[in-house]
Automatic annotation (TrEMBL):
<protein>
    <submittedName>
        <fullName>Chromosomal replication initiator DnaA</fullName>
    </submittedName>
</protein>
<dbReference type="InterPro" id="IPR027417">
    <property type="entry name" value="P-loop_NTPase"/>
</dbReference>
Length: 231
């Protein structure tokens, strides 16, 4: 009796966590972020020793927070962890608060942030704040915090130009140990939206397809990933 042909096993993709490189040398500078980079590197000259850094997801806010930490030894804390944090201990050094706009309406978190802001600056330390939007767009319920945030110098990270989008795609692929064939990155830049969030989705989809199909990352595979994402 003839045996039925057996299809080769399909490679399953594993949801492995990539470890993004977040040093200064890994941050690509373009016209979309040059001002923010200059402010981070010149942090000792911030007016009132504070800065609000805002921009869309994936624009490099967290990366720049880590660059700043390496420069000054700051501690980093997500804003939603403020209610349970040791505020005096945090205020004893430079501190970065990420996602500050996410606590708007949470009175306990807003009060903790207000006290941290005042104490850190009173101690002579610097405060870096990140958010998706500028402070005047945060629906804060604590008037004293709102006034202090609106008086904070602000820098916006813009959506990427072609040059920066290509660099972001290359970096995210490098973080996943993906080596695209020549022409793949320019192909993606010409066809995908100019948005940091979409860059992450595209690279994740490409990585998954490459693992499932056991194929190199080529223009054809990139086109298939874009099609699956509806981009």
């Amino acid at each position: 009796m003839a045996r039925r042909p057996v299809a080769p096993p399909r490679q399953l993709s594993l949801d492995l966590v990539s470890m993004p490189a977040q040093g200064r040398d890994d941050f690509y500078v373009s016209s979309a972020n040059a001002t923010a980079v200059a402010l981070i590197e010149g942090w000792q000259d911030w007016p009132a020793r504070k800065l609000a850094l805002n921009g869309p997801p994936g624009s490099g806010k967290t990366h720049l927070v880590h660059v700043w930490r390496d420069l000054c030894g700051a501690r980093i804390l997500p804003a939603r962890e403020l209610p349970g944090a040791d505020i005096p201990a945090l205020a004893a050094g430079h501190v970065a608060i990420e996602g500050a706009d996410t606590i708007a309406g949470d009175r306990a978190a807003e009060e903790a942030f207000f006290h941290l802001h005042n104490l850190a600056l009173a101690e002579g330390n610097s405060l870096l704040i990140t958010a998706r939007a500028a402070p005047n767009h945060w629906p804060l319920v604590l008037p004293d915090l709102a006034s202090r945030m609106q008086a904070t110098p602000t820098c916006t990270l813009k959506e990427p130009d072609d040059e920066l989008l290509a660099a972001v795609l290359m970096k995210q692929m490098g973080d996943r140990q993906i080596l695209p064939t020549p022409g793949t990155i320019p192909y993606l830049v010409r066809r995908m939206p100019r948005a940091f969030g979409d860059a992450g989705r595209v690279v994740e989809a490409i990585d998954r397809l490459a693992l499932e199909r056991r194929r190199p990352v080529t223009r054809a595979l990139a086109a298939e990933a874009l099609d699956k994402l509806g981009l």
